Amino acid sequence: MSTSDQRQSQTEPAAAAPGTGPTTAPGTGTLTFGLNTFGDIPADASGELISHAAALRAVLEEGVIADQTGVDVFAVGEHHREDFAISSPETLLAGIAARTERVRLASAVTVLSSDDPVRVYQRFATVDAISNGRAEVILGRGSFTESFPLFGYDMAHYEELFEEKLDLFVRLLDEEPVTWKGRHRPALTNASVFPTTEHEHGLPTWIGVGGSPQSVVRTARYGLPLMLAIIGGEPTRFAPYVDLYKRAATELGQQPQAVGMHSHGLIAETDEAALAQHFATYKTMMDRIGSQRGWPPLTKEAYLSEVRDGALYVGSPRTVAEKIARNVRALGVDRFDLIHTAGPISLEARRTAVELYGTQVIPMVREMLAESDGTARA
Amino acid sequence: MSGQAPATGSAGVPARIGIIGAGKVGTVLARLALGAGHEVLISGSGDPAKISLIISVLAPGARALTTAEVAREADLVILALPLSRLRTLPAEDLAGKVVIDAMNYWWETDGEDPQLAGPAASTSELVQAHLPGAQVVKAFNHMGYHDLDEKGRPAGHPERLAIALAGPAGAVEVASALVEEMGFDALPIGELREGVRLQPFSSAFGAATAAGPLRELIEGFGETERGREVLAALAEGETGA
């Protein structure tokens, strides 16, 4: 479905229908590349954190640069914490939509459990209209839980809320009148939801999964594409999850869709510059989260080990491209998204990373994979 | 260990390992136990059919059963389910067995529970209280599941990491042998109550290090702010009791 859009055309808006488009076959050089951010609050030149409003404007500008430099997808993730400015992804995406032509605009993720599927659908359908069909929603449970008390949901229903709301959301993709009943949202009787989109089968929709095998199977059961959050450890550890997704889809009578992965990183002109800019700010973010979850502070040794063998993509364009190519090949995924912000990384460093990702890293990875593909066939 | 004289593998570890919980941690532990040559039984929260595909891909060779069947048929059982589901465990079926508690109180999964979140919470002792006939050992809880998955090494390997265990001596001996078979050095640290040194917010939580540095982290617990708070709260509880 949506992941194959850019293969058909690099310039026309995406218009593939979910569930019907061909999935991008691994190793065919038709990978999708995305950038993701949660709207971390950057530091200005003097090291002071800028305002939430300024942080949001910075993300908007980065979306514009991503569009100009050839990034396929720009995705923003919903959080409800002081350290992240984005709580309303589709409002920001609408702003980016008005200033861009080509880049697909996604959430990564929309915390469906604590939202109303009908409203989520309407808001994204609106972004889809503004952007000429470039909107995409990645639904997930999120790795934070602040939205539950904020919107009056009980954590005791964590699993059930997502299951039920996903069930409704998937029915909305038909864009036909819906009759539905659940426990956590008023029932719908022959209800129509507007606006409808210009896609044949509704909004391009993915499910974001953090590592729960049950969530992988659920995604396969709905026949939706899968986005794996690979935040720590050796990425190849997720290969069985890709296999599980494909086997589950086949056994459950669904066509396996695209599989993507997203991970943290930063690109600078040199490895040294990237490491120097990224470590301290990534540590600020991780230690802040760790202090709430009981993890010890991140050590430099553990960080460097993640950069070397794990889930972090930090370095020069070539270093990062080589690592992306290696893991994309090993996992057989169709999409790679880089989370280019973590903690108070400076605006300048972020902007450089966005530019280098689009202008250098993506072409290099495509070239590396095309070469290895050619070699494999020779 | 259990008095049922089950078939044993090396070092007295029973041949048949049960794992209750088929999520991230349970499937990793199942793979490690299979890799060590054990027969593995595993359960999720309901009908085994719900996890059979997951198990066939993520831990091929393990048998998916109900929790009651795993508790009954396995000779040693590892708990890898959300701590808040403790009350769903069949206590009678686990009586007489070594039960390894790999769980942590995780408010984001288990819901806010002031009792479990407080400094006086010793969660493996709560597990023992719920399973009075079992010999509960705390182990595997302090290491991240991806480290468990990736970093097992043969005995004597220079990069071999350690896993700390707390519990009664005989049961710890059996659990230690299993830890060693799975590719980690076993570091027994004392009775079950000492498990508070391995819980979230302790300096050993999340540790993926060799035995020496792990021992230092655990011994230094009382000198950390959290350690002082926890040990004081536990001492106060004892005085009050």
UniProtKB/TrEMBL annotation, chain A:
Residues 1-12 have a biased composition (Polar residues). Keywords: Monooxygenase, Oxidoreductase. InterPro entries: Bact_Lucif_Oxidored, LLM_Atu2307-like, Luciferase-like_dom, Luciferase-like_sf. Residues 13-31 have a biased composition (Low complexity). Signal peptide: none annotated. It holds the Pfam family Bac_luciferase. It comes from the Bacteria. Transmembrane segments: none annotated. Residues 1-31 are annotated as: Disordered. Residues 48-334 form the Luciferase-like domain. NCBIfam families: LLM_2I7G. This is LLM class flavin-dependent oxidoreductase.
From TrEMBL, chain B:
Pfam families: F420_oxidored. InterPro entries: NAD(P)-bd_dom_sf, P5C_Rdtase_cat_N, STEAP_metalloreductase. Residues 16-105 form the Pyrroline-5-carboxylate reductase catalytic N-terminal domain. Keywords: Oxidoreductase. Gene3D superfamilies: NAD(P)-binding Rossmann-like Domain. This is NAD(P)-binding domain-containing protein.
